[in-house]
Design goal:
This protein is an alpha/beta fold and 430 residues long. It has helices at residues 8-17, 73-76, 119-129, 146-174, 179-191, 197-206, 209-214, 219-229, 241-257, 278-291, 295-301, 305-310, 339-361, 364-376, 383-390, 398-412, 421-428; strands at residues 33-37, 40-41, 49-56, 59-70, 88-95, 110-112, 323-325, 328-329. Among the domains are: 8-117, no CATH class; 175-337, no CATH class. 48% of the residues lie in helices and 10% in strands. Strands 1, 2, 3, 4, 5 and 6 form a six-stranded mixed β-sheet that branches. Helix 2 (73-76) links the parallel strand 4 and strand 5 (88-95). Helix 4 crosses helix 13 and helix 8 packs antiparallel against helix 10 (278-291). It is elongated, with a radius of gyration of 29 Å.
């Protein structure tokens, strides 16, 4: 049997929007059907729609509704062996090819949709799903009303923040719900960018924030702890007094706190811009930690995005003005944390942790504030954003660009057009 272009998501769409021929509904064994309640779509494991209610013949049934392309998919998905599907009252399929039963051998009535789908919906759906352009609706997107795109992006930015909290939750659990420590680890991780993300996370986990706090009033000690735990003070750099002083300080602190540094081989410098070298990022991080106490608390009490940004404005020690690495002189250049990098910290660290905090304590104001920070920051510049702009999408802030990244990765790349508000408009149009 050839697999049709129809997928289950089209059946979900038809059912939710009631966009199918509902005249004289009949089960495959000839019983009249009256749909009293269509139910609620279930996005977790189990039947597709819960709390449905249908009248079949003279009997009213309440329970779940399951959907498949073929009715034989019921057994292919092992539902006949799963008690979670014993309460299914109606099997809705594109094409009926077999009777199916529950684990107790109870027959399940079937409604075939094949001849009840409007031709225009089939054609519109096929046009999107069979399209191999950059995004399925590439040729049609410019025709979609601006407000449709705007409202959808507003939902997607929250969805993207939600997806980013998955990693944060694991760190929060590891720190026993210590928000300051969680922010510290996540900030460290992001300072490493993609190349040194893992070593920076390892550094954070091998140097508890509590030790930083105990030496809060001494920048030199904070630098010694960070570089020492990073394994960057092992080598000898003759004549480099700054390196030697850090090394001496770290030797004392390591003994005091029983510290062991991470492997120095972890760090990568190759094919990187010098401004992004881990040595420079650690210098910036040391200054950020020195400048602000209880960073997470300051973030949640900040009145606006500017106040949050100011927490990350930092200029490293004088030594780094003419160095990118220990023991090697370079042309003078201030190594302050740039505005662009601060904005990326807000996008990838601050807003996600604020969003998670709001969800965790049940206070939506923090979730709203997380999105407001993104709305204050200018849009990111990347290929995805550029391509959507070419298709007429207006991108005014980082909230828009984050929404577009979510749209491309989760919906367009997976061709989940029927789960997308834009796709819904295009499939339902006349």
């Amino acid at each position: 049997m050839l697999t049709p272009i129809i997928k289950e998501d089209l059946l979900y769409y038809l059912w939710k929007t009631k966009s199918f021929d509902m005249l004289d509904l009949m089960t495959e064994d000839g019983q009249p059907i009256e749909i009293i309640e269509f139910g609620n779509q279930n996005y977790d494991a189990g039947p597709d729609f819960s709390n449905g209610k249908v009248k079949i013949g003279d009997t009213i049934w309440a329970g779940n509704i399951e959907m498949h392309v073929y009715s034989s998919d019921w057994e292919r998905h092992n539902h006949d062996l799963d008690k979670a599907y014993d309460n299914v009252i109606l099997h809705v399929v594109y094409e009926h090819d077999r009777e199916v039963h529950t684990t107790t051998e109870q027959f399940i009535p079937c409604l075939e949709m094949k001849k009840r789908i409007p031709q225009r919906i089939k054609q519109n759906y096929a046009k999107l799903i069979s399209n191999n352009n950059w995004i399925p609706c590439e040729n049609q997107l410019p025709s979609v009303a601006e407000h449709t795109v705007t409202f959808w992006l507003q939902r997607l930015v929250a969805e993207r923040l939600e997806s980013k909290t998955k990693y944060l939750k694991t760190i929060l659990d590891q720190t026993n719900t210590d928000w300051e420590e969680t922010l510290y680890i996540c900030l460290m991780r992001y300072m490493g960018a993609r190349v040194n993300m893992e070593p920076f996370e390892s550094l954070a986990k091998n140097l508890p924030l509590s030790i930083i706090h105990k030496n809060k009033d001494d920048l030199h000690k904070i630098e010694a702890l960070l570089y020492g735990q990073a394994g960057m003070l092992v080598a000898n750099h003759e004549g480099d007094t700054y390196h030697d002083s850090l090394k001496s300080e770290y030797k004392f602190l390591a003994k005091k706190y029983a510290l062991n540094h991470i492997p120095i081989v972890s760090w990568k410098f190759a094919r990187m811009r010098p401004a992004g070298f881990p040595t420079v990022r650690i210098a910036q991080l040391a200054q950020i930690l020195y400048n602000s106490e209880h960073l997470f608390s300051q973030i949640i009490t900040a009145k606006n995005t500017k106040e949050v940004m100011d927490l990350f404005r930092a200029t490293p020690s004088e030594y780094w003005e003419d160095h990118y690495r220990f023991g090697t002189d370079s042309i003078y250049k201030e190594k302050s944390v740039g505005q662009g990098f601060i904005e990326l910290i807000i996008i990838n660290v601050v807003s996600p942790i604020l969003f998670l905090y709001g969800k965790s304590i049940g206070d939506e104001q923090y979730c709203d504030r997380a999105i407001e920070h993104l709305e204050t920051i200018k849009s990111e510049k990347n290929k995805v954003v550029t391509n959507y702009k070419k298709l007429g999408v207006k991108v005014n802030s980082a909230a828009d660009s984050q929404g577009l990244l979510q749209l491309k990765k989760v919906y367009c790349d997976q061709k989940l057009c029927l789960s997308c508000s834009i796709g819904n408009k295009l499939i339902g149009k006349h």
